[in-house]
Amino acid sequence: GNLLWSRAYTTDHTTTEDQEVVTGSEEVHEFKTETKRLLDIVANSLYSEKEIFVRELISNAADALEKLRQTQSVESDVDSGKPLEIRITLDREKNQFIIQDFGIGMNLEELNANLGTIASSGSKKFLEKMDKEGGAGSKKENIIGQFGVGFYSTFMVGNKIKVYTKSAFPGSKGYCWTTDGQGSYTVAEAENVAVGTKIVIELRDDAKSYSSELEIDSIIKKYSNFVGYPIFLNGKEVNVIEALWTKDTKSVTPEQHQEFYRFIANAWDDPQYTLHFKTDSPLAISSVLYVPEKHMELLGEQTKPGVSLYSRKVLIQPESAGILPHYLRFIKGVVDSEDIPLNVSRELLQDNILSRLRMVMTSRVLKWLDGEAKKNPKKYDEFFMDYGQFIKEGACTDAMHKREISKLLRFESSKSENNSMISLEDYAARSQEGQKRIYYLLTPKRKYAEESPYTEMFKKKGVELLYLYDTVDEFVVNHLKEFQGFDLISADSPDAASDPLL
Ligand SMILES: Nc1nc(Cl)c2cnn(Cc3ccc(Br)cc3F)c2n1
């Protein structure tokens, strides 16, 4: 009837009016000593920017919705009766930030435990490490993102925090948890609490900006754009882009990649190469990477690293310099690894996980480009005309991946048609019987190469000669020294003169 119709159309996606009423007696709990220390560590040093409290609370809310959905698949009577969405409302006058989810919610022991466990087990180790290694936010250690730690980030911006929560399990009571972060919190039973969790933060004077819609909108778009549940800010849906990289690689169309590429690269062109891959060893990674049609460095603009690091669809580090080596900075895209703990902040990113991630990613990218070159050599030559400078930079700087990078190099040669290029593999494959060397000639352009006496001699003997036009080419061959057992030798070197083949 029209009641149903009217209810369906009146969902305004704002947080439920504060109709909660505290009914039970308020039990006061002192924060355990280590909780207090953890609170001020988190509030003062674990996170680099205050704004990430928004990311942390949204992630907790999304995890709570995910937990509800998983529980519902096994226990049918567990339900919140509300949509699986996250709602944030701001109140400028009251200087309030409110976030609500209709997720699995917390019962009394969870409410106390979540704060307790973090304060007891997780943090004791953490605090000892901190003490041992001095200073908060010790480089090596940080608490893996779990429910509780993210919540602590509210202490960076709030002077009074209220949490209304009710578990989705039938017959659960609603509770109201409050604190002023000074050392104790109270818990009391409450009526009219919606299933899920609602967190009401009274913002500190130095955090007033977090009651501004523009500010929160941009923070959500920056960190939580791809969270798997709709986020409504003052009733308006904010995150509308799907985390393309989490979809099945075969189900994503080129058009979807083009749209996603334009969004994350803030570009108008199309990607000339697309890589969408997932792996779960040596660590869980899902990633979409693109090579743009054109790169801006030609116009002198220094390219910032184009790959952003996510963990479970939440941004950890934009334009992360740690994911790919500098010479691959032209690549745009997303790398998402759930093995990167969520709550690590910029400086705390664990370098050992990051270096493993970097190894996997670099090899995978070099293999991807080699695969593309083999699939369509002509198209790769065009790519190399534009991006060869980056590959050559890699040949000169990345000794670890020398072998893979050398396969990506292209040069003109005495046997290649005008301005088409060959690979070192091509050269080796068609070298003379018993030839042990790859010969090259440093020359500004083809015309001079053709007139050189060396070329005459090499041609007569049927030995191919690479033409190296770029000054950087000399550095490249000096760094490489050899390729698949062939020494790289200049045509005018004494070694060439003594070669029986010539
Ligand atoms: N949204 C949401 N939903 C769920 Cl199910 C949980 C469980 N833990 N946390 C973190 C947390 C822990 C203690 C207190 Br007090 C508040 C708080 F948000 C959650 N947050």
How would you sum up this structure, described in words?
Residues 117-121 and 130-146 have low confidence and may be disordered. The strands form three sheets. Strands 1, 2, 3, 4, 5, 6, 7, 8, 9 and 10 form a ten-stranded mixed β-sheet that branches. Strands 11-12-15-13-14 form a five-stranded mixed β-sheet, with helices on both faces. The protein is 37% helix and 21% strand. It starts with a helix and ends in a 5-residue tail after the last helix. By secondary structure, the protein is an alpha+beta fold. Ligand FE6 binds at residues 60-61, 64, 101, 103-106, 111, 114-115, 147-148, 151, 163, 177, 197, 199.
Class from helix and strand fractions: alpha+beta
Mean pLDDT reading:
87
State the helical fraction: 25-40%
Instruction: Characterize the largest beta sheet: strand count, sense, and whether it forms a barrel.
Output: 10 strands, mixed
The fraction of residues assigned to DSSP E strands is: 15-25%
Key traits:
5-stranded mixed beta sheet; binds ligand FE6; alpha+beta; elongated; 37% helix; 15 helices; 502 residues; 10-stranded mixed beta sheet
Question: How is this structure best summarized?
Answer:
The chain has 502 residues and is an alpha+beta fold.
What's the helix and strand layout?
Elements: H1 2-10, E1 21-22, E2 27-30, H2 33-46, H3 52-74, E3 86-91, E4 96-101, H4 108-133, H5 147-152, E5 158-166, E6 174-179, E7 184-191, E8 196-203, H6 213-223, E9 231-233, E10 236-237, H7 254-265, E11 271-279, E12 285-292, E13 306-311, E14 314-317, E15 332-336, H8 351-375, H9 377-397, H10 402-406, E16 412-413, H11 424-429, E17 437-442, H12 446-451, H13 453-461, E18 465-468, H14 471-480, E19 482-483, E20 486-490, H15 494-497
Parallel strand pairs: 3-9, 13-15, 17-18, 17-20
Antiparallel strand pairs: 1-7, 2-7, 3-4, 4-8, 5-6, 5-8, 6-7, 9-10, 11-12, 12-15, 13-14, 16-18, 19-20
The protein binds the ligand Nc1nc(Cl)c2cnn(Cc3ccc(Br)cc3F)c2n1.
Residues 60-61, 64, 101, 103-106, 111, 114-115, 147-148, 151, 163, 177, 197, 199 line the site of ligand FE6.
